[in-house]
Design brief:
3 domains, 48% helix, alpha/beta, 286 residues, Rossmann fold, single chain, three-stranded antiparallel beta sheet, elongated, five-stranded parallel beta sheet
């Protein structure tokens, strides 16, 4: 049936894109964004807006799910709404919504209401979280923990390399002593020269290998920091959305004259109105 546990699918451990089915004006959506920025800033959010209460909500929720399934390649879907009365949450008990969740080709995680609230979509979803914030935490790894793990692995590799080098040195010393006992002086001298060359090559190779690994780890750490949306805003970039529907403006064609815009900067937000729109060839430089 729709609630069969055998139908539940595992969640992707490192999602690149997360679809969100909720109203863009709710506190739940803000909570989800805050959690994702804090835990895993590399992830991209694709909002499929919908009403989340009232008689008109069920068909809009079904359509929001369909859009994500048909037109995006998101790795997982969050269906979220903050707390409310039983009547406020009733749209998530609608049969059409429950069937749409069960039919989704993309894993669905619900975070509807508070921990004490329960709706039918929770049973049809692949995973039920008690709150919208908890749902955002479920679908993302902890970025800080990942960085700590990378540092720990770097330290382990360095320690293993040094231990291996010490082992090589001990083996070389033992061989040198054996040659000293069994070989003429000339052979001993030649053997020691070969041993010294071997030690030098091993040390050089180990140092180069450690340097490459450290550079790779440092590059991954920098990529995590550089992908942080707050860092992009501090470098002079801004996120522009339309005030009426919250859609992101990525082209001059997305905002006609008279459109009200919200501009997010690193230290606050601005509200502006398009006075004039001039379209240019995107292939030509400014």
């Amino acid at each position: 049936g729709l609630f069969d546990k055998a139908r539940k699918r595992p969640l992707p451990p490192f999602p690149r894109t997360i679809g969100v089915v909720t109203s863009p004006t709710t506190a739940a959506f803000q909570d989800i964004q805050n959690v994702l920025r804090r835990r895993y800033p590399l992830v991209e959010i694709v909002l499929s807006p919908t009403l989340v209460q009232g008689k008109e909500a069920p068909p809009q929720i079904v359509e929001a799910l369909r859009r994500l399934n048909d037109y995006t390649d998101v790795d997982v879907i969050l269906m979220a709404r903050g707390g409310g009365s039983l009547e406020d949450l009733w749209c998530f008990n609608d049969e059409a919504v429950v069937r749409a969740v069960a039919a989704s080709r993309i894993p669905v995680v619900t975070g509807v209401g508070h921990e004490i609230d329960s709706t039918l979509v929770d049973f049809a979803a692949d995973y039920r979280a008690p709150t919208p914030s908890a749902a955002a935490e479920v679908v993302t790894p902890d970025g800080a923990a990942l960085r700590n793990n990378l540092r720990a692995w770097s330290d382990r590799m360095a320690g293993a390399a040094l231990a291996r080098l010490d082992e090589y040195r001990h083996n070389v010393d033992a061989q040198a002593r054996l040659l000293a006992r069994l070989s003429p002086a000339r052979q001993i001298q030649d053997a020691r020269q070969r041993i010294d060359d071997l030690i030098g090559r091993v040390a050089l190779h180990t140092q180069h290998d450690l340097a490459r690994r450290r550079d790779r780890l440092a590059g991954q750490a920098r990529a995590l920091d550089a992908a942080n949306p707050a860092a992009l805003l501090r470098r002079g970039y801004a996120v522009v959305t339309r005030s009426d529907d919250g859609r992101r403006v990525t082209s001059a064609r997305d905002a006609a004259e008279g459109t009200s815009l919200r501009i997010a900067l690193h230290d606050g937000r601005l509200t502006a109105t398009v006075q004039e729109r001039e379209l240019t060839d995107p292939n030509k430089a400014f």
